[in-house]
Amino acid sequence: LERRVEDHALGRLESRIDKPLDFENHELPLRASVGYSVFPIDGDGIDSLIEKADQDMYEAKRSRKGKLAPI
How far apart are alpha carbons 40 and 55 in whole angstroms? Predict the structure, then answer.
């Protein structure tokens, strides 16, 4: 429940990033895997916060593996 606002913001960010880029009359699919952490919920020091954000980012990558970016 504490991360609900952050999850919503992350969803909005990803929806804006996950759009094709028009480059020289070609649409290139873009994707970004984002992880985040919240102080003090996810850790109380920079190392633990970075570790949590990294874990979230790699989980996002794993959950998308094999899926094509929407065009």
Answer: 16
